[in-house]
Structures are given as C-alpha cells and as structure tokens.
Amino acid sequence: MRILSKRQLKELVLYSPQHVARLEKAGKFPKRVQIGPNRVGWVEDEVLDWLQERLNRRDEPVRHS
Question: Does residue 62 lie in a domain region?
C-alpha cells in the first residue's frame, strides 16, 4: 500500500487542496488518512479507483442536477 502526500495528490488529481477537502466532505472523494499530528495522506489505490471511475464515465452524456 502506498500513501500519497498532498503534493503527490495534487500532481495526480490536479485539484486544489480546498477543492479536494470539499469533495471529501461531500463524500465524493477518498478520505484522507491521518498519519501523524501534522501529516495526512491518501491511499493511492483509492485515488486511482476514483480516477478510473471518471475515465469510465467520460463518454457518457453530461447530466446536470
């Protein structure tokens, strides 16, 4: 298992830390893992699965809620 840092996550997902936090809070992004008192990370496999879901849906028509 590999844990991604904030920097690694940003390179992979291309979202700002604030947007990632909003998505996490809404249950639309994998939750961070508290590694230490001042350190968090994300499980790489969970983030890659999240990205794969988006890739799988990219040819579907866009639905506006």
Answer: no
